[in-house]
């Protein structure tokens, strides 16, 4: 078991140091009503009173109901400021604009929402001198279970080293609302979507592989296959090396 009391102090200090060194006046993050965003919001609020959580429904019905209510409940408990930005019209407008350009796949359509959300976060951040806090955990990062240039983009991530299970343990330590612990992990990209069903393995299995190096043979095959297939997501763009470097070879 990690020492979450000590880690709370360390992570809060990390955020304080970062905001001070960057000259930022505040922090903004996507408040989805889920576990990861809840932990990020709580830690950021402890470090910086001027923390803002954007609630950004986009497409799916659950975004406007359970997720929105959960996001507000978390924000109220920890006194985090919230604003609601309805991105569904923007998603529809983009789909319409692209309709005569390409036949969009389901994957392409699902990834529109995370990229619109990140655009909204950075628009607010740039306008109000805020840093964008990421909300992805270690388990998702290893699997590549995030949208490139969408929810994978941020200025800093204070939970990137925590597995999905450790995020839950941290939330227990901080007294988070009970509903978070029974809520199935979901990116909320479409109605009925759950992370574990889409991934094909349970987060507990991913965490076991990361923390102990052991899980079932079937799960390890799935996890490592997805890890290899998403390697490009964990790197910055591939840059042309420059003429001088090419000539030296």
Molecular structure report:
By secondary structure, this protein is α/β, with parallel strands linked by helices. The protein has one domain: Rossmann fold (3-Layer(aba) Sandwich). The chain has a four-stranded parallel beta sheet with strand order 3-2-1-4, with helices on both faces. Helix 1 crosses helix 2 and helix 2 crosses helix 9. The longest helix is centred in the N-terminal third of the chain and has 19 residues. It is globular, with a radius of gyration of 19 Å. The relative contact order is 0.14.
Q: What's the topology here?
A:
Layout (H helix, E strand, L loop, with lengths): L3 H19 L3 E5 L4 H13 L3 E5 L5 H4 L1 H12 L3 E4 L3 H11 L7 H5 L1 H17 L1 E3 L5 H6 L20 H10 L5 H4 L12 H5 L3 H10 L4 H13 L13 H5 L2
Helix pairs in contact: 1-2, 2-9
List keywords for this structure.
249 residues, alpha/beta, Rossmann fold, four-stranded parallel β-sheet, 14 helices, globular, 7% strand, 4 strands
């Amino acid at each position: 078991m990690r020492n979450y009391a000590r880690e709370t102090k360390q992570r809060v200090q990390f955020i304080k140091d970062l905001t001070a060194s960057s000259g930022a006046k505040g922090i903004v993050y996507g408040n989805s009503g889920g576990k990861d965003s809840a932990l990020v919001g709580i830690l950021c609020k402890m470090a910086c009173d001027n923390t803002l959580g954007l609630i950004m429904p986009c497409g799916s019905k659950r975004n406007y109901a359970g997720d929105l209510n959960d996001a507000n409940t978390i924000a109220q408990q920890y006194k985090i400021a919230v604003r609601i930005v309805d991105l569904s019209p923007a998603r529809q407008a983009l789909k319409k604009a692209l309709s005569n350009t390409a036949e969009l796949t389901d994957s392409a359509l699902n990834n529109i929402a995370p990229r619109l959300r990140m655009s909204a976060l950075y628009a607010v951040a740039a306008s109000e001198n805020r840093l964008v806090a990421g909300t992805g955990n270690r388990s998702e990062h290893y699997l590549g279970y995030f949208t490139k240039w969408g929810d994978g983009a941020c200025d800093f991530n204070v939970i990137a080293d925590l597995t999905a299970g450790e995020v839950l343990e941290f939330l227990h330590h901080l007294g988070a609302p009970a509903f978070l612990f029974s809520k199935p992990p979901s990116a909320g990209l479409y109605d009925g979507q759950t992370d574990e069903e889409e991934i094909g393995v349970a987060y507990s299995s991913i965490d076991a592989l990361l923390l102990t190096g052991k899980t079932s043979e079937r799960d390890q095959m799935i996890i490592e296959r997805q890890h290899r297939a998403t390697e490009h997501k964990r790197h910055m763009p591939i840059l042309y090396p420059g003429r001088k470097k090419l000539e030296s070879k």
